[in-house]
Amino acid sequence: MAGMVATTPNKNATRDTALKLYTGEVIKAFREKNIGLGLIKNRMISGGKTAQFIVTGEAAEADIQTHVRGEEVISKVLANDEVTITVSTRYVHSHFLDALDEKLAQYEIRGELAFQSGQVLATKIDKDVFQLVGNTVLAMTPLTGQQAATTTSCTGYDAATTAEGRGNALIEAFFAGKAALNVKKVTDTPSVIVAPTDYYNIVQSTRGTNADYTSNNVGIDSGSVRQIAGFSIGWTNHLDVTTNTKLLALMFTQDVAGVVKAMDIQSEANYDFRRLGWQLTSYYALGMGALNPTGLVVINDESA
User: Fold this and answer.
1) Dihedral (C-alpha) 185, 190, 195, 198: value to the nearest 10 degrees?
2) 227 pLDDT exceeds 90?
3) How many angstroms separate the CA atoms of 107 and 92, rounded?
4) CB atoms < 10 A from the CB of 108, how many?
């Protein structure tokens, strides 16, 4: 009809939707698989390449004064230090997807590629976190006002011949570790990370999920355990990245280490006309560093 202008379909609509779907699926896969980042201090920066973390000492009882009327109050300076963490790494994972292959495929391939990218980045960063905690934090020289990490053995673990026995031994070690933190006046709640085998040893223990010891702490039916001694417990396949071959568990508070992020998990889907296909790229820019070994307990088997 005269005077009417035909509406041109949005030729980029399909690509725009694909980009959003790919990006969202990578982020979802990453956050479902990564557990390490949530267990340490996180800071996002919008510019520059470093961030400062302030670590303080502990007020001393010896500094308490008995005030005498008219006399000057003597102030003490609380020991403190500054740890600078630099964004030093950008991890990149990329797939190339031929446009014709995608068209001819009898299945949805882009979602699988997104999942694989998210998963492999999550795994890499988890390994970095547990390597940092299990090696660097453990070995660091405490700064002013800090205390060294605690190392303890899991009594009875090696002698146990059943999952129940090993699980009970681990639970006793967790309480010993929690007590060690309390002695050091650590008030923050720690997290505990074990290998999958030991996680399920705890599930099968007579204490971890027994109705006489716990209340709605999940159990045999679900194959999981929510908490022990007031702290959460999780499993990872990446404790073997530490140099300690006798390691059974890491118990640590969030302030033992920190991560500075310049770019959270991001993804791009760009069409490359030179290769007639899609470049699907995911990346993460960050830096990590040890902060305070006081809140770390390393639990080893008895042969350590």
Assistant:
1) 70
2) no
3) 26
4) 10
Mean pLDDT for the chain overall? 82
Encoded amino acid at 215, one letter: S
Q: What is the pLDDT of residue 79?
A: 59
Q: What is the pTM (predicted TM-score) of this model?
A: 0.79
Q: 166 — phi, psi (to 5°)?
A: -65, -40
Q: What are phi and psi of 189, to 5 degrees?
A: -80, 125
Instruction: Give residue 304's pLDDT.
Output: 57
Annotate 55-105 with DSSP letters as a single string. EE----GGG-----TTPPPPP-PPPEEEEEEE--EEEEEEEEEEHHHHHH-
pLDDT at residue number 247: 95
The rounded distance, in Å, linking the Cα atoms of 26 and 116 is 8
The whole-number pLDDT of residue 219 equals 66
| Residues contacting 272, CB < 8 A, separation 6+ | 96, 278, 279
Three-state SS for 212-266 is CCCCCCEECCCCEECEECCEEEEECCCHHHCCCCCEEEEEECHHHEEEEEEEEEE
Interval 19-40 mean pLDDT: 77
CA-wise closest residue to 27 among 287, 283, 286: 283
CA–CA distances in Å: residue 225 to residues 170, 174, 200, 211, 214: 13, 14, 9, 12, 10
